[in-house]
Amino acid sequence: MDTAGCFVKSTKRDRKGNLLDAEDKIVPADDADKFRKAVHLNDIHLEKGMHCVDCHFRQDSHGDGNLYNEPRAAIEITCVDCHGSIRERTTLLTSGPAAAAITSQGKTVVGRNLVRISARR
Description:
This protein is mostly loops. The protein is built from four helices and four strands. The strands form two sheets. The chain has a two-stranded antiparallel sheet with strand order 1-2. A hairpin with a 2-residue loop joins strand 3 and strand 4 (about 105-110). The radius of gyration is 19 Å and the shape is elongated. The two termini are about 30 Å apart.
């Protein structure tokens, strides 16, 4: 999963990774204006009015007190936490590399319950 693709415009490409213009023609890689000529696609979350904080909570923004070797390792939530995958339904528990282990009623569960997190409106 390319996490850099969230909330930024990404470009339309063919199956080989070549940039495509509005007529689905390949934009040459050495063209100085290649990113102006390529079709730009919006992320569906951005189109629906969501912002970074709608998915990335306190821990993802301010850290959890641990040092990580790179930024993606410090993320608590992943796409499958809300959307599930082709093989499994969502658990609605955070499962990213930095998801906290929480003990409740003698059971240890990895990840926070996304149903209990409320957004202020």
